[in-house]
Amino acid sequence: MTTFFDAFISYGRADSKAFAQKLQTHLQEQGFQAWFDFNNIPLAVDFQHQIDDGIEKSHHFLFVIAPHSVNSPYCLKEIELAIKLNKRIIPLLHVMAISQSTWQQRHPQGTQEEWEAYQEKGLHESYQNMHPTIRKLNWVYFQEDTDDFEQSLADLVKLLRSHTDYIEQHSRLLVKALEWQRNQKQLSWLLIGEERQQAQAWLKRRFKEEQPPCTPTDLHCEYITESIKNANNLMVQLVIAYSDQDQETMARISSSLRRESITVWTNTTDIPTGEAFEEAIKRGIEQADNLVYLLSPDSVNSTYCQQELNLAVR
Known about the structure:
Layout: E1 5-10, H1 13-29, E2 34-35, H2 37-40, H3 47-56, E3 58-65, H4 67-70, H5 73-84, E4 88-93, H6 100-106, H7 112-120, H8 132-136, E5 140-141, H9 149-160, H10 164-182, H11 193-204, H12 218-231, E6 236-241, H13 247-259, E7 264-265, H14 277-286, E8 288-293, H15 297-300, H16 303-313
Parallel strand pairs: 1-2, 1-3, 3-4, 4-5, 6-7, 6-8
Helix pairs in contact: 10-12, 11-12
Protein backbone atom coordinates (compact mmCIF):
# COMPACT_ATOMS: atom_id res chain seq x y z
CA MET A 1 0.00 0.00 0.00
CA THR A 2 1.31 3.46 -0.95
CA THR A 3 2.22 5.75 1.97
CA PHE A 4 1.35 9.41 1.42
CA PHE A 5 2.55 12.46 3.36
CA ASP A 6 0.69 15.67 4.14
CA ALA A 7 3.73 17.80 3.35
CA PHE A 8 7.30 17.69 2.06
CA ILE A 9 9.69 20.08 3.84
CA SER A 10 12.34 21.59 1.55
CA TYR A 11 14.97 23.63 3.40
CA GLY A 12 18.64 24.64 3.55
CA ARG A 13 20.54 23.01 6.42
CA ALA A 14 22.94 25.86 7.17
CA ASP A 15 20.11 28.30 7.97
CA SER A 16 17.06 26.19 8.76
CA LYS A 17 17.87 22.66 9.99
CA ALA A 18 16.69 23.34 13.56
CA PHE A 19 13.62 25.21 12.31
CA ALA A 20 12.67 22.40 9.91
CA GLN A 21 12.97 19.84 12.73
CA LYS A 22 10.83 22.03 15.00
CA LEU A 23 8.24 22.50 12.24
CA GLN A 24 8.05 18.77 11.54
CA THR A 25 7.55 18.02 15.25
CA HIS A 26 4.78 20.61 15.64
CA LEU A 27 3.02 19.42 12.48
CA GLN A 28 3.15 15.87 13.80
CA GLU A 29 1.52 17.05 17.04
CA GLN A 30 -1.28 18.51 14.87
CA GLY A 31 -1.78 15.12 13.20
CA PHE A 32 0.17 15.76 10.00
CA GLN A 33 2.79 13.45 8.50
CA ALA A 34 5.58 15.60 7.07
CA TRP A 35 8.37 14.19 4.87
CA PHE A 36 11.69 15.34 6.31
CA ASP A 37 15.04 14.11 4.98
CA PHE A 38 16.56 13.44 8.42
CA ASN A 39 13.71 11.03 9.22
CA ASN A 40 12.61 9.69 5.85
CA ILE A 41 15.78 8.73 3.93
CA PRO A 42 17.00 5.21 4.84
CA LEU A 43 20.74 4.54 4.97
CA ALA A 44 22.59 3.34 1.86
CA VAL A 45 19.98 4.39 -0.71
CA ASP A 46 19.95 6.83 -3.65
CA PHE A 47 18.97 9.96 -1.73
CA GLN A 48 17.83 11.86 -4.85
CA HIS A 49 15.43 9.05 -5.75
CA GLN A 50 14.07 9.07 -2.19
CA ILE A 51 13.57 12.85 -2.30
CA ASP A 52 11.81 12.70 -5.69
CA ASP A 53 9.58 9.90 -4.40
CA GLY A 54 8.81 11.94 -1.27
CA ILE A 55 7.72 14.96 -3.33
CA GLU A 56 5.54 12.77 -5.59
CA LYS A 57 3.76 11.28 -2.57
CA SER A 58 3.31 14.49 -0.55
CA HIS A 59 0.11 16.50 -0.80
CA HIS A 60 1.85 19.86 -0.16
CA PHE A 61 5.35 21.20 -0.82
CA LEU A 62 6.62 23.48 1.97
CA PHE A 63 9.62 25.58 0.92
CA VAL A 64 11.50 27.17 3.82
CA ILE A 65 12.84 30.49 2.50
CA ALA A 66 16.35 31.33 3.69
CA PRO A 67 19.58 32.33 1.88
CA HIS A 68 20.93 28.77 1.94
CA SER A 69 17.79 27.15 0.48
CA VAL A 70 17.25 29.87 -2.14
CA ASN A 71 20.84 29.44 -3.38
CA SER A 72 20.99 25.63 -3.07
CA PRO A 73 21.08 23.57 -6.31
CA TYR A 74 19.47 20.68 -4.39
CA CYS A 75 16.53 22.82 -3.25
CA LEU A 76 16.21 24.15 -6.80
CA LYS A 77 15.77 20.56 -8.06
CA GLU A 78 13.06 20.03 -5.45
CA ILE A 79 11.23 23.24 -6.42
CA GLU A 80 11.40 22.37 -10.13
CA LEU A 81 9.97 18.89 -9.51
CA ALA A 82 7.16 20.30 -7.34
CA ILE A 83 6.31 22.77 -10.13
CA LYS A 84 6.44 20.04 -12.80
CA LEU A 85 4.05 17.89 -10.73
CA ASN A 86 1.73 20.89 -10.10
CA LYS A 87 2.01 20.43 -6.34
CA ARG A 88 0.47 22.96 -3.99
CA ILE A 89 3.53 25.02 -2.98
CA ILE A 90 3.51 26.93 0.31
CA PRO A 91 6.57 29.17 0.94
CA LEU A 92 7.56 29.76 4.58
CA LEU A 93 9.79 32.79 5.18
CA HIS A 94 12.35 31.82 7.82
CA VAL A 95 15.46 34.01 7.18
CA MET A 96 15.49 36.97 4.79
CA ALA A 97 19.23 37.65 5.19
CA ILE A 98 22.18 36.59 7.32
CA SER A 99 24.53 39.07 9.01
CA GLN A 100 28.26 39.36 8.47
CA SER A 101 28.86 37.88 11.94
CA THR A 102 26.81 34.75 11.03
CA TRP A 103 28.77 34.44 7.80
CA GLN A 104 32.05 34.83 9.73
CA GLN A 105 31.09 32.03 12.14
CA ARG A 106 30.60 29.71 9.15
CA HIS A 107 33.78 30.95 7.41
CA PRO A 108 36.29 31.62 10.27
CA GLN A 109 39.11 32.36 7.82
CA GLY A 110 36.92 34.54 5.59
CA THR A 111 38.13 38.05 4.69
CA GLN A 112 36.21 41.29 4.24
CA GLU A 113 36.73 41.02 0.48
CA GLU A 114 35.23 37.52 0.46
CA TRP A 115 32.20 38.74 2.43
CA GLU A 116 31.69 41.57 -0.06
CA ALA A 117 31.95 39.11 -2.97
CA TYR A 118 29.43 36.85 -1.18
CA GLN A 119 27.04 39.80 -0.90
CA GLU A 120 27.64 40.76 -4.53
CA LYS A 121 26.33 37.33 -5.62
CA GLY A 122 23.29 37.68 -3.37
CA LEU A 123 24.27 34.59 -1.37
CA HIS A 124 23.66 36.32 1.97
CA GLU A 125 19.96 37.07 1.36
CA SER A 126 16.83 35.40 0.05
CA TYR A 127 15.29 37.70 -2.53
CA GLN A 128 17.90 38.29 -5.25
CA ASN A 129 18.20 34.67 -6.42
CA MET A 130 14.74 33.47 -5.39
CA HIS A 131 12.86 31.22 -7.83
CA PRO A 132 10.15 33.29 -9.58
CA THR A 133 7.40 30.83 -8.55
CA ILE A 134 8.34 31.18 -4.88
CA ARG A 135 8.56 34.96 -5.26
CA LYS A 136 5.02 35.36 -6.62
CA LEU A 137 3.21 33.14 -4.06
CA ASN A 138 1.88 34.33 -0.70
CA TRP A 139 4.28 33.45 2.10
CA VAL A 140 3.65 32.29 5.66
CA TYR A 141 5.97 34.31 7.92
CA PHE A 142 8.10 32.31 10.37
CA GLN A 143 10.98 34.76 11.00
CA GLU A 144 12.57 34.19 14.39
CA ASP A 145 12.42 37.18 16.77
CA THR A 146 9.91 38.84 14.40
CA ASP A 147 6.89 36.57 13.94
CA ASP A 148 4.82 34.62 16.46
CA PHE A 149 5.62 30.95 15.73
CA GLU A 150 2.33 29.66 17.16
CA GLN A 151 0.24 32.10 15.11
CA SER A 152 2.20 31.30 11.93
CA LEU A 153 1.80 27.59 12.63
CA ALA A 154 -1.96 28.08 13.04
CA ASP A 155 -2.07 29.88 9.66
CA LEU A 156 -0.12 27.04 8.04
CA VAL A 157 -2.34 24.37 9.60
CA LYS A 158 -5.42 26.20 8.30
CA LEU A 159 -3.94 26.09 4.80
CA LEU A 160 -3.04 22.39 5.09
CA ARG A 161 -6.63 21.63 6.13
CA SER A 162 -8.22 23.47 3.19
CA HIS A 163 -9.33 21.65 0.00
CA THR A 164 -7.92 18.39 1.41
CA ASP A 165 -10.14 16.09 -0.67
CA TYR A 166 -9.12 17.75 -3.94
CA ILE A 167 -5.41 17.90 -3.09
CA GLU A 168 -5.21 14.32 -1.80
CA GLN A 169 -6.94 13.05 -4.94
CA HIS A 170 -4.36 15.02 -6.97
CA SER A 171 -1.56 13.08 -5.24
CA ARG A 172 -3.20 9.67 -5.48
CA LEU A 173 -4.01 10.06 -9.17
CA LEU A 174 -0.53 11.47 -9.87
CA VAL A 175 1.17 8.43 -8.31
CA LYS A 176 -1.06 6.07 -10.33
CA ALA A 177 -0.44 8.05 -13.54
CA LEU A 178 3.33 7.95 -12.96
CA GLU A 179 3.16 4.16 -12.44
CA TRP A 180 1.21 3.88 -15.71
CA GLN A 181 3.81 6.00 -17.49
CA ARG A 182 6.73 4.00 -16.03
CA ASN A 183 5.06 0.78 -17.20
CA GLN A 184 4.94 1.88 -20.87
CA LYS A 185 1.30 3.06 -20.48
CA GLN A 186 -0.07 -0.47 -20.51
CA LEU A 187 -3.86 -0.79 -20.39
CA SER A 188 -3.72 -2.92 -17.23
CA TRP A 189 -2.54 0.13 -15.23
CA LEU A 190 -5.55 2.31 -16.19
CA LEU A 191 -8.41 3.20 -13.83
CA ILE A 192 -11.59 1.14 -13.89
CA GLY A 193 -15.10 1.21 -12.41
CA GLU A 194 -15.89 3.58 -9.57
CA GLU A 195 -12.28 4.74 -9.29
CA ARG A 196 -12.38 5.94 -12.91
CA GLN A 197 -15.71 7.72 -12.35
CA GLN A 198 -14.31 9.50 -9.27
CA ALA A 199 -11.23 10.56 -11.24
CA GLN A 200 -13.40 11.93 -14.04
CA ALA A 201 -15.48 13.93 -11.53
CA TRP A 202 -12.25 15.26 -9.98
CA LEU A 203 -10.94 16.36 -13.40
CA LYS A 204 -14.19 18.21 -14.14
CA ARG A 205 -14.21 20.11 -10.84
CA ARG A 206 -13.84 23.90 -11.20
CA PHE A 207 -13.11 26.57 -8.58
CA LYS A 208 -15.32 29.50 -9.57
CA GLU A 209 -15.06 31.79 -6.54
CA GLU A 210 -11.37 31.20 -5.74
CA GLN A 211 -8.11 30.00 -7.22
CA PRO A 212 -7.61 26.22 -7.25
CA PRO A 213 -5.10 25.00 -4.64
CA CYS A 214 -3.35 23.05 -7.41
CA THR A 215 -4.13 21.99 -10.98
CA PRO A 216 -4.00 18.67 -12.83
CA THR A 217 -0.83 17.98 -14.81
CA ASP A 218 -1.05 17.00 -18.48
CA LEU A 219 -0.22 13.48 -17.31
CA HIS A 220 -3.26 13.46 -14.98
CA CYS A 221 -5.49 14.50 -17.89
CA GLU A 222 -4.05 11.94 -20.28
CA TYR A 223 -4.27 9.13 -17.69
CA ILE A 224 -7.90 9.84 -16.81
CA THR A 225 -9.08 10.29 -20.41
CA GLU A 226 -7.20 7.15 -21.51
CA SER A 227 -9.03 5.29 -18.73
CA ILE A 228 -12.36 6.65 -20.05
CA LYS A 229 -11.36 5.64 -23.60
CA ASN A 230 -10.47 2.14 -22.42
CA ALA A 231 -13.85 1.82 -20.65
CA ASN A 232 -15.58 2.74 -23.94
CA ASN A 233 -13.82 0.03 -26.01
CA LEU A 234 -11.42 2.65 -27.47
CA MET A 235 -14.29 4.77 -28.86
CA VAL A 236 -13.36 8.47 -28.57
CA GLN A 237 -15.05 11.85 -28.82
CA LEU A 238 -12.73 13.16 -31.50
CA VAL A 239 -9.82 12.45 -33.79
CA ILE A 240 -7.47 15.20 -35.01
CA ALA A 241 -6.36 15.41 -38.66
CA TYR A 242 -3.27 17.59 -39.09
CA SER A 243 -0.06 17.93 -41.08
CA ASP A 244 3.31 17.10 -39.53
CA GLN A 245 4.22 20.81 -39.61
CA ASP A 246 1.27 21.51 -37.26
CA GLN A 247 2.15 18.82 -34.71
CA GLU A 248 2.92 21.33 -31.96
CA THR A 249 -0.51 22.96 -32.37
CA MET A 250 -2.16 19.53 -32.40
CA ALA A 251 -0.42 18.56 -29.16
CA ARG A 252 -1.50 21.83 -27.49
CA ILE A 253 -5.14 21.39 -28.58
CA SER A 254 -5.17 17.72 -27.50
CA SER A 255 -3.80 18.65 -24.10
CA SER A 256 -6.43 21.38 -23.62
CA LEU A 257 -9.27 19.05 -24.64
CA ARG A 258 -8.12 16.28 -22.28
CA ARG A 259 -8.14 18.86 -19.48
CA GLU A 260 -11.87 19.20 -20.21
CA SER A 261 -12.25 15.40 -19.86
CA ILE A 262 -12.63 14.91 -23.63
CA THR A 263 -11.20 11.72 -25.17
CA VAL A 264 -8.89 12.30 -28.14
CA TRP A 265 -7.36 9.98 -30.77
CA THR A 266 -4.09 11.07 -32.40
CA ASN A 267 -1.63 9.21 -34.58
CA THR A 268 1.21 9.98 -32.14
CA THR A 269 -0.42 8.28 -29.14
CA ASP A 270 -2.91 5.69 -30.40
CA ILE A 271 -1.17 3.50 -32.96
CA PRO A 272 0.08 0.25 -31.37
CA THR A 273 3.56 -0.95 -32.28
CA GLY A 274 3.44 -3.10 -35.40
CA GLU A 275 0.05 -1.91 -36.68
CA ALA A 276 -0.10 -0.58 -40.26
CA PHE A 277 -0.20 3.23 -40.12
CA GLU A 278 -3.01 3.84 -42.64
CA GLU A 279 -5.18 1.06 -41.23
CA ALA A 280 -4.74 2.47 -37.72
CA ILE A 281 -5.79 5.96 -38.82
CA LYS A 282 -8.83 4.54 -40.62
CA ARG A 283 -9.83 2.67 -37.47
CA GLY A 284 -9.27 5.81 -35.36
CA ILE A 285 -11.61 7.89 -37.54
CA GLU A 286 -14.28 5.17 -37.59
CA GLN A 287 -14.24 4.98 -33.77
CA ALA A 288 -14.44 8.77 -33.24
CA ASP A 289 -17.62 10.86 -32.88
CA ASN A 290 -16.02 13.95 -34.44
CA LEU A 291 -13.09 14.83 -36.68
CA VAL A 292 -11.19 18.04 -35.97
CA TYR A 293 -9.29 19.21 -39.05
CA LEU A 294 -6.45 21.65 -38.40
CA LEU A 295 -6.64 23.95 -41.40
CA SER A 296 -3.29 25.27 -42.63
CA PRO A 297 -1.52 25.57 -45.99
CA ASP A 298 0.34 22.35 -45.14
CA SER A 299 -2.75 20.33 -44.19
CA VAL A 300 -4.70 21.52 -47.26
CA ASN A 301 -1.88 20.24 -49.47
CA SER A 302 -1.40 16.98 -47.55
CA THR A 303 -2.58 13.81 -49.29
CA TYR A 304 -2.93 12.06 -45.92
CA CYS A 305 -5.10 14.84 -44.43
CA GLN A 306 -7.31 14.83 -47.53
CA GLN A 307 -7.77 11.06 -47.27
CA GLU A 308 -8.71 11.39 -43.59
CA LEU A 309 -11.23 14.14 -44.38
CA ASN A 310 -12.72 12.10 -47.25
CA LEU A 311 -13.15 9.07 -44.96
CA ALA A 312 -14.82 11.20 -42.27
CA VAL A 313 -17.22 12.70 -44.83
CA ARG A 314 -17.99 9.28 -46.29
